[in-house]
Amino acid sequence: MLNQVVLVGRLVKDPELRYTNDNKQVTNVTLAVNRSFKNVETGEYDTDFIRCTLWSGIAQTTTEYCSKGSVIGVKGRLVTRYQEFEPNKRINYPEVIAEKVTFISTNNKKNEELPN
């Protein structure tokens, strides 16, 4: 059995580093991933929005060097989460637990502030 996902997309908002109760670093990001084919009806490329969870050093580094619009690659495993709105009404959605993140094009605000 194999559960491996590789995505390349843009961050839809700035990542925010949080800490769990046992002091582990975590951030959730959403990647906008364009499909490789055009929608027949509109003639435009559709985009999928994929939620990813990053832990520990990956979370810290991504938060430090990336911001909204950064292009990153994520390699990880797919899990199914659910959110319950009312009794007997829940929505399932996929989420990727990141094992590796590659920075392809960052919008690092810190680099913009450095003197020439």
From TrEMBL:
This is Single-stranded DNA-binding protein. The keyword DNA-binding applies. GO terms for cellular component: nucleoid. The keyword Flavoprotein does not apply. It comes from the Bacteria. GO terms for biological process: DNA replication. Keywords: DNA-binding.
